[in-house]
Amino acid sequence: MFPPHFSIANLSTDTIKPTHDLSQFDCSQNDVSGVNDFLQLEALNYQDENMGVTHLFFYEDELVGFVTISMTYVEKKEIPDPKRLDYYGRKKPPAMLIGQLGVDNDARGRGLGRVLCNWSEGKAIELSSEIGCRYLVLHTEQDLIAFYEKIGFETRKPEIDADTDKAGRLYYLDMTFDMLHRYSDVSLSGVNLFAFLNKLIISWLNLISSKYVIKCDLLLK
User: Fold this and answer.
1) Sign of the C-alpha dihedral, residues 202, 74, 159, 183?
2) Cα separation of 112 and 127, whole Å?
3) What CATH number should be reported for the domain holding residue 33?
4) What is residue 30's predicted lDDT score, i.e. its pLDDT?
5) Is 213 within the bounds of a domain?
6) Handedness of CA 170, 173, 174, 175 (dihedral sign)
7) Which tens digits make up the pLDDT trace of 105-122?
8) Pairing between strand 62-73 and 94-103?
9) Distances (CA, A) of 188 to 26, 59, 205
């Protein structure tokens, strides 16, 4: 029996390995993007090629969900509020991509999708303190847009998949501006709160100073 609501506290995680038994996991319900096939057939090779790391989530000993993450970048012109990065010039902001996210059919309706997103946000914050990661991004189907908007993702324009000719969207979560009010809901594996707040203040100062052509990157260092 699953709990009424999942939380990161009642889950264990592990990166995918050849020894994991994936045979009982099934997220094929309303799966129009091939997420279930990806886990069963591609995830291990994808990870071996350093194209993305798949993290498995277990309730007790049962696999209930997974997320595959990798690094990417975003086009400044596509982010929901490009004026935030006026001081950044024409550079392409670094980001972490949620490439795949799946919840077992029997575990749905218990908040697990939100938990997986929150865990991914925490991982992106952790990365941002070491290698730079301004955005968390994902592609989603039309029928899942409302779910991701409720969590806090936003987009600026639709994106069309040329291979499938299906409308999808690239959704963004700004790790600096959108995460502070969500901080207590995110799984942070060892990230330093002071370092994160320091990064937040620096980014705000940079945004303000860009109007006066003043750079404040080193102000709090």
Assistant:
1) negative
2) 23
3) 3.40.630.30
4) 87
5) no
6) negative
7) 999 999 999 999 999 988
8) antiparallel
9) 28, 19, 25
Q: The tokens 């942070």 sit on which residue? A: 188
Contact 121, 186 (CB under 8 A): yes
Q: Under DSSP, is residue 104 helix (H, G, I), strand (E, B) or coil?
A: coil
d(CA 75, CA 36): 29
Number of domains into which the chain is organized: 1
- The amino acid at residue 164 is T
The verdict on residue 54 lying in a domain is: yes
User: What single letter denotes the amino acid at residue 32?
Assistant: V
pLDDT digits (tens, 9 = 90+) for 134-185: 889 998 888 888 888 888 888 765 554 444 444 456 788 887 665 554 544 4
Residue 126 forms part of a structural domain: yes
Residue 49 lies in domain: 8-188
d(CA 108, CA 130): 34
Cα separation, 97 vs 25, whole angstroms: 23
In 12-144, which ranges are continuous DSSP H helix? 35-37, 43-48, 112-128
